[in-house]
Amino acid sequence: MAEVPVCPLCLRPIPADVPQSRHHLIPKLRGGKGGPTVLLHHICHKTIHKTLRETELARNVNTIEALREHPDLAPFWAWIAKRPPGFAGKTR
Q1: Do the Cβ atoms of 75 and 82 come closer than 8 Å?
Q2: Which domain of life, per UniProt (predicted)?
Q3: In a domain, 92, yes or no
Q4: Torsion angle of the four alpha carbons 74, 11, 78, 69, in this order, in degrees rounded to the nearest 10
Q5: How many domains, the chain?
Q6: Which of 36, 39, 42, 87 could disulfide-pair with 19, CB 3.0 to 4.6 Å?
Q7: How many other C-beta atoms lie within 10 A of the C-beta of residue 23?
Q8: Contact at 8 Å (CB) between 57 and 80?
């Protein structure tokens, strides 16, 4: 039986039946094509891209640690961590 992956941002499990996507730590349009990616809940991924511009992601917020600690994202990670893994409400 395969181990269920955990979202490195909200720290909730990502079961196979939950919407998920891969995030390029450096955006593809900013030189990250073929670079490292991380598996995230789709809602977590969407929140990153609704909150931060590609340039900021490429220059300053290109690690899991930087994403977790970013002042515009940290409150969301704390909030979503209290929701069930399949929660897919609207992103802000």
Answers
A1: no
A2: Bacteria
A3: no
A4: -20
A5: 1
A6: 42
A7: 20
A8: no
Summarised one tens digit per residue, pLDDT across range 16-58 is: 999 999 999 988 877 778 889 999 999 999 999 999 999 999 9
Whose structure tokens read 């720290």?
A: 11
CB atoms within 10 A of CB 21: 14
Task: Return d(Cα 51, Cα 53) in angstroms, integer.
Answer: 7
Contacts of 85 (CB under 8 A, 6+ apart): 12, 13, 14, 15, 18, 41
- DSSP class of 26: S
- Looking at the domain assignment, is residue 89 inside a domain? no
Residue-number span of the structural domain to which 25 is assigned: 20-81
Specify the amino acid at residue 12: R
The token duo for 28 is 């593809």
